[in-house]
Amino acid sequence: MTEYLLLITCLTERNLFIRTNIRKKVYFMSTTGIPAGDLEAGVQKKRFIRIIPYIFVLYIISFLDRVNVGYAALAMNNDLGFSSAVYGLGAGIFFIGYFIMEIPGNLIMARWSARLWLARILITWGLIAGLMAFVRTPWQFYTVRFLLGLAEASFMPGIIYYLSCWFQAKEQARAVALFMLAVPVGSIIGGPVSTSLLGVHWLNLAGWQWMFILEAAPAVIFGLITPFYLTDKPGQAKWLTAEERNWLINRLNEEVDAKKAHKAYTLWQAFADRDVIILALIYFFWVTGFYGFNMWLPTIVKGLSTTFTNQTVGWLVAIPYIGSLFSMILVSRHSDRTGERRCHTMLMLLTGGIGLAVSMLVVKTVGWQLVFFTVTAMGIYGAFGPFWALPGSFLTDVAAAGTIALINSVGNLGGFVGPYVVGFLKNATGSFTGGDVFLVVCLVVAGLMPVLLKKPGQLRKSI
Question: Which residues pair with 202 in a beta bridge?
Fold first, then answer.
């Protein structure tokens, strides 16, 4: 009965959005005689071309430096004598540092300068990521991963907030999804590249050491470029005409006014909001499953066959992420078109949980396991666009920046819990089965929790 009621709710929200959009499609002329539809299309094209590709590249670099430890583990653990428990703790402790600096970093960015703060993040994380090449003991491993988390904190929520300053609510799921396509693309590129680097031995350094050094360098390079390329606010955009700037500023201000007319949140009111707390909990369980899956996938795939080389593992791991590309694009487009967020998020997370359960606990052949690993990736990645459009549907300004950081920081504690619990259970039992059950439960819980949200995230009539 609950499922039928949720379906009826989602269909009602979708139909309301469509009817509202039909009423709003009025053709009018701008002050200079340019049709508003043409003006909007021009601004939209310029923003997507100017902003999305650049931050897409930045997030590929970020994600590679965050998860390449999963590929390094194929050789590093043996070279340094790290157990599964040591690796799991080191992989996850990154997110403790991330948690500590997340909210302060996003508030600094909102009150100061997005481009300068993002540049600082890129340069410091690049330098620290390179230090991973020189760790020798478990405590050195833990320390560098913790510092890397501190350095990178607020990058992802900072970008989400930055996009909310440039894109209207009806565009945000697609903008977020296009930016976050960098995660599966980074995994597709990172698998073959990282495992290929494991085979090199230059200047008495092992392949995993060169992998950390070479994959850290782009962060420093782009950190130096960022202050000169990105623009903080639409009013400063010289790459838009004066009319385009005014049109965009007016539209964004209209949305802010509409949200504030419904309720103007202070930062602390936003932190205490029931739906914000639920979103943080959803993201915690989701990220626990997400990073438990991502950090251990190379090791799990290598264990499927004794004949797999590291390079073979790199190519096979890319397959699930190719599927997730299509999922992210299609789900975000449908979410923006219908104006519905909650049910899209719920469906994708449940798909991820079911896919992981079948891949590890039901099917036993390599081919079918890869198929359901792909279903898992399509689910856990496909939810990103509609989920991150939810906070911006009712929050603005500093409240939005702080809340996005809060949700991301609490959620990313799951990035510590997931890899650590899987590593601990693998060490204790000699099998991935217990860890897999834990990750499946987390994804299913995350998938069911959106039904508790009182603000389903559909676009309001006034926006």
Answer: 205
Residue 12 domain flag: no
Measured torsion, CA atoms of residues 168, 173, 174, 180, in degrees rounded to the nearest 10: 120
Q: Return the structure tokens found at 109.
A: 């960015």
Contact partners, residue 374, CB within 8 Å, separation at least 6: 319, 320, 322, 323, 324, 355
* Look-up of token digits 């909001």: 273
Domain count, the chain: 1
Beta strands in 121-177, from DSSP E residues, in sequence order: none
Contact at 8 Å (CB) between 151 and 126?
Answer: no
Has residue 7 been placed in a domain?
no
Give the range of the structural domain holding residue 320, as residue numbers without chain letter: 39-232+244-452
Whole-angstrom distance, CA of residue 388 vs CA of residue 316: 29
The predicted model scores a pTM of: 0.71
CB burial string 37-67: b at 16+ within 10 A, e below: eebbebbeebbbebbbebbbebbbbbbbbbb
Could you tell me which of 128, 341, 109, 282 has the C-alpha nearest to residue 220?
128
Backbone torsions φ then ψ of 241, nearest 5 degrees? -70, 165
Phi, psi for 83 (deg, rounded to 5): -80, 170
Q: Is residue 404 included in any domain, yes or no?
A: yes
Q: What is the pLDDT along the chain (463 residues), one digit of tens a residue?
A: 444 334 334 444 444 444 444 444 443 344 445 555 667 778 888 888 999 999 999 988 887 777 788 888 888 999 999 988 888 888 888 888 888 888 888 788 888 888 899 999 999 989 999 999 999 999 999 999 999 989 988 888 888 888 888 888 778 778 888 888 888 888 788 778 888 888 888 888 999 999 999 989 999 999 999 999 999 988 898 988 888 888 888 888 887 777 666 655 666 777 778 888 899 899 999 988 887 787 778 877 887 777 888 788 878 888 888 898 899 889 988 988 888 888 999 999 999 999 989 987 787 788 888 899 999 999 999 998 888 888 766 666 667 777 877 888 888 788 788 878 888 888 888 877 888 888 889 999 999 999 988 865 554 443 3
Nearest by Cα to 208 from 136, 316, 148: 136
CATH of the domain at 409: 1.20.1250.20
C-alpha radius of gyration, the chain, whole number:
22
Stated as kind and residue range, the H or E segment containing 391 is: none
Report yes or no on 311 lying in a domain: yes
What is the token pair recorded at 203? 């200047």
Torsional class of 202: left (φ above 0), alpha (ψ -120 to 50), beta (otherwise): beta
The pair of structure tokens assigned to 194 is 């990282």
In angstroms, the Cα distances linking 445 to 101, 345, 432, 437 are 27, 12, 20, 12
Cα-Cα-Cα-Cα torsion 94, 97, 100, 103, nearest 10 degrees, comes to: -60
